[in-house]
Structure formats: C-alpha cells, structure tokens
Amino acid sequence: MKIVEYETKYLESVKDLLVELEEYIVSIDEDHLDRVHSDYREKMTELDLKEVNDNDGKCYLALDNDKVIGLIIGIIKKFDEYDYLDYKCPKEGEITELIVSKDARSKGVGNLLIKKMEEYFKSVNCEYILVDVFAYNKNAINFYDKEGYHNRMHTVIKKIGD
C-alpha cells in the first residue's frame, strides 16, 4: 500500500468513495436528515476538489495495487475580520474528508492517511487541525480519539416539528 497525492486518473474512484461514505452516513443518521442526492456523486467531488484548490489544500489517496482504498482531504482554514473578535485564529488545517473503503478498514489505512495530512499541515506551519465528525459515526469518533484528537465544540439538535 502507498499514499499518493490526488491525480485526475483516480477521479472516478474518488467519486465512488465519497458516495460510499455518504451512503454510510445516511444509514446511521438517527435524525434522517442526510441523503444522497442524484447529483451528489458529481457535484460533491467537484466541490471538494475546488475547496482543495482554493484553500491551499491537499487530497491524498491510499492505493493498494493501484486501486484507491482510501482518501483524505485537508484545507487551510481561512478567517475573516470577525473571527478575530473572539478567537486568536492560529493557523489551522481542517480535515474535510477521511474515507476508507469498507473492504480496507481496520488495516491501518486511515492512520497512514491522517499521518500524511498531519505532515502536510506541519510543513505549512499549522498549529492545530480541526475535524468535524458526524455524531452518530461512533467508529470515526473512536478513530480520532485514538489519534489524539479531542472535542472542542459540541453541536446539539432538537426536532420541533412533525
């Protein structure tokens, strides 16, 4: 297995992984708010790759015999003038996607991908790394805990209508 930077020849595999993750998220969403829109496969990939390009980011892929089995996307978080009113705004990297194909899980792929992204963030002098994790994704929460990440914010939700 090896970790490489994204190349367009892997575009279809990236789309497949993004759909695989979203289908999983839909299956564990106890609020039933997530969905896989018919345009998701094309538009989400386009959006993620644009975000990488616009925010000094990186997309790394885990390959096993030239087959994509995982990906990680990270960007450099940008702040505006209002953020500085109540936050020190250290240089932060943000992991926006981390996906390991279901057939490759529990084999160290996620660990290799996160270490690669952490190396990139360190190389551009980031002080912190942020990750939003879906609250119902217990596997991901446990993974990040083991990697030394901790909660800083807690989002709550309450349904008020039928």
Polypeptide structure, described:
There is one protein chain. With 162 residues, this protein is an alpha+beta fold. It has a single domain, classed as Aminopeptidase (3-Layer(aba) Sandwich). It has four helices and five strands; from the N terminus they run βααβββαβα. It has a five-stranded mixed β-sheet, sandwiched between helices. It starts with a strand and ends in a 16-residue tail after the last helix. The relative contact order is 0.16.
Annotation, overall tally of beta strands: 5
Put simply, the count of helices is 4
Cα(first) to Cα(last) distance is 49 Å
Order of helices and strands: EHHEEEHEH
The radius of gyration over CA amounts to: 16 Å
Question: Percent of residues in helical segments?
Answer: 25-40%
- Strand content is 15-25%
CATH architecture: 3-Layer(aba) Sandwich
Mean pLDDT, nearest integer?
92
Silhouette: globular
In this structure, how is the largest beta sheet organized? 5 strands, mixed
